[in-house]
Amino acid sequence: MPHRTLAPVFTGLRAGLHALFVGLLALVVVRVVWTGGSPWALALAAVLAAVYLAGLGIARTRNRASGVAWIGALTLVWVPLMWLVPEAAYLVFPLFFLYLHLLPGWAGPAAVVAATGVTIVALAVHGGLTVGGVVGPLVGAGVALLIGLGYGALQRRSVESEALVAELLATRDRLAATEREQGVLAERARLAREIHDTVAQGLSSIQMLLYAAERADATGPGIAHIRLARQTAADGLAETRRFIRELAPPTLDRGLGPALQRLVEGWAQREGIDVEASVPTEVSLPMDAQTALLRIAQGALANVSQHADAGRVRVALAQEARTCG
Asked: Tens of pLDDT along 27-47?
């Protein structure tokens, strides 16, 4: 699809081609009516108009086979019309552009050359071989070929521009996602520091004070409540530290593989669970993808700690090569 900034250019070219074909066909009809020509010429002109209008709907389907069939039908009707009415030879000019646009590869230029030869012969049959009858079609064919080449180059440039814009938009989206992820990580790190400096320190102080109170009056009437409060503070401190570890993932400064390895080793030491890690040392992924994978692994290990009665855990990371055909 052409880039939207060039769409008016292509729309204008198509509109001009249609107007040229309609105007030349109207000239043929007027010529036949004015000179009292053969009714077969009017019939062929009507058939040519009907085929052309039908082909406008086919062209919108972008089906190459339908387009080839359409231009073939136009040629089959145009040739006998040209033998009956010499002015129909002018219709070769819009047909030149249709050949170049619809026929694949070298078939388009070959059809232009063949149509030029047929036009020269038809004009020679009607009025003899003249310089105008030879030079006119040849010049028209040359101009059509040049314009067709320019149109093709413009269309290719449009497709390349569209691909470039799509790539730039995708890059912008990736950068935005990376910035959002970095912002999330920075906010997590800030929260981890805040919790460590406030809640964790407070719970640690409460635990120490309760422990001191327990030692000072080990046989007092409220000792059971003191011990329960100290244990509750200890549990809260352990849970808070777990939150801090989850909020602050291991650094990715040496890559995803080493970060996962450190995460797994630290988790295995804390939980006392045997962990088997199969992690490559080098992973070729964007930083946002590495960060996401690290967070997924961290969340999965946290779920194992809270919800699974596991005796053994395996963490594996594999990267498969993908081929595009």
From this structure: 888 888 887 777 888 888 889
pLDDT at 252: 59
Give me the half-sphere count of Cα atoms (radius 13 Å) on the Cβ side of residue 145: 16
Which residues, other chains included, contact 85 with Cβ-Cβ below 8 Å and sequence gap of 6+?
A: 28, 31, 32, 37, 41, 45
In angstroms, the Cα distances linking 277 to 156, 266, 283 are: 50, 12, 15
Q: Which amino acid, residue 297? A: A
CATH 3.30.565.10 intervals, the chain: 252-325
Q: Round to whole Å and give the CA distance between 179 and 52.
A: 55
Compute CA distances 126 → 44, 81, 89, 95, 253, whole Å: 18, 13, 11, 21, 84
| pTM for this entry | 0.45
Fold of 252-325: Heat Shock Protein 90 (3.30.565)
* Confidence grade of residue 254 (pLDDT, cut at 50, 70, 90): low
